[in-house]
């Protein structure tokens, strides 16, 4: 086991949210924010439902956590997300001062934490988030692959 049991437990919760997104015909990405081993924010992609290009899983989970803590600063919090965050979400993660980011799988087309860009490692911003990947990587890849395969077949 590469990570402790809690890390898998929280990523599994993010995967369950990705499945909800899948069922709602959204790109299947889920996210949870954790503080002191308790989930304080949840989100899954709702771009289509809300007709909002910013309604990514990470943004919704961060907003939920900020509301729970009644604070814009989420230092001491961890974010678990099923797919590597994009540029917008990486910016939100940095601005909210998330301590640790765990993502399941890389996103080779839009990822901003190691794939297309590696914004957190540029050391140009006022906050450094620790990044870890690979928890339930295969499961996250498969749900994305199945979703886009279904979308192609529907055309």
Order of helices and strands: HEEHHEHEEH
- Largest pleated sheet: 5 strands, mixed
How many helix segments? Answer: 5
User: In one word, what is the shape?
Assistant: globular
Averaged pLDDT, please? 96
Strand order of the largest sheet: 2-1-3-4-5
Give the tally of β-strands. 5
Give a structural overview.
The structure is a single chain. This protein has a 5-stranded mixed β-sheet. The model has no long low-confidence stretch (mean pLDDT 96). Strand 1 (30-35) and strand 2 (38-44) form a beta hairpin. It has helices at 5-23, 47-50, 57-69, 87-95, 137-154, and strands at 30-35, 38-44, 77-83, 100-105, 130-133. Helix 1 (5-23) runs parallel beside helix 5 (137-154). 41% of the residues lie in helices and 19% in strands. The radius of gyration is 14 Å and the shape is globular. It is an alpha/beta fold. The longest helix has 19 residues, at 5-23. It contains 5 helices and 5 strands.
Structural descriptors:
single chain, 155 residues, alpha/beta, 5 strands
A few lines on this structure:
With 155 residues, this protein is an alpha/beta fold. The chain is built from 5 helices and 5 strands, in the order αββααβαββα.
What is the fold's blueprint, element by element?
Layout (H helix, E strand, L loop, with lengths): L4 H19 L6 E6 L2 E7 L2 H4 L6 H13 L7 E7 L3 H9 L4 E6 L24 E4 L3 H18 L1
Parallel strand pairs: 3-4, 4-5
Antiparallel strand pairs: 1-2, 1-3
Helix pairs in contact: 1-5
């Amino acid at each position: 086991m590469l990570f402790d049991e809690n890390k898998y437990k929280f990523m599994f919760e993010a995967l369950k949210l990705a499945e909800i997104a899948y069922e709602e015909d959204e790109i299947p990405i889920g996210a949870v924010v954790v503080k002191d081993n308790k989930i304080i924010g949840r989100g899954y992609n709702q771009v289509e439902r809300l007709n909002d290009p910013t309604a990514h899983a990470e943004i919704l989970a961060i907003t939920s956590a900020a509301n729970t803590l009644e604070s814009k600063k989420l230092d001491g919090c961890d974010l678990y997300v099923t797919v590597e965050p994009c540029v917008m979400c990486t910016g939100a993660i940095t601005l909210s001062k998330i301590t640790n980011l765990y993502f399941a799988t890389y996103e080779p087309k839009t990822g901003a934490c190691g794939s297309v860009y590696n914004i957190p490692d540029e050391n140009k911003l006022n906050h450094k988030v620790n990044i870890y990947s690979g928890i339930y990587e295969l499961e996250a890849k498969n749900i994305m692959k199945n979703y886009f395969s279904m979308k192609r077949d529907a055309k």
